[in-house]
Predict the 3D structure of the following.
Amino acid sequence: MLQPESADATRLFSWNSRIGRARFVAYGFAGLAFAIVYFVVVGAAERALDVQYRPGDLTGWGHTAVVLLAPALALVNATRRRLHDFDVSAWWALFLLFPIFQFVFLIYLLVAPGTAGANRFGPVPPSTERSVMAVAAIGGLALLWLIVLRSP
């Protein structure tokens, strides 16, 4: 089995390492922020170029597929690495496909501590930097603002 180096755990696109709770939240919000920025940039470019899609035109679907695929892959990668922190297989992520389990499973990923020492997926994740904590806090506050304060 691959034993990643401790520096590998901090890389965003690493596939076989472990991450802690704060980094899991930060990576999820980073993927969401990417999707929002992409939609804004593509929308502004289409407006500036006066692009109009006709019914049945599949060009717009290509943009939507790209913007939905990137955060989905980021979430799959973060979930896989978070499950590795529990010393369980990434196949447990299939619980996210069932709506009845999604909420409970995500809460578990957010609050449960990982394995205390090294496990078969690598050493203990490094401590979380302030920048990662800031992204997690800002993302959490933005989500709270969208859900609670923006409701009619």
About this structure: Residues 53 and 60 are 7 Å apart (CA to CA).
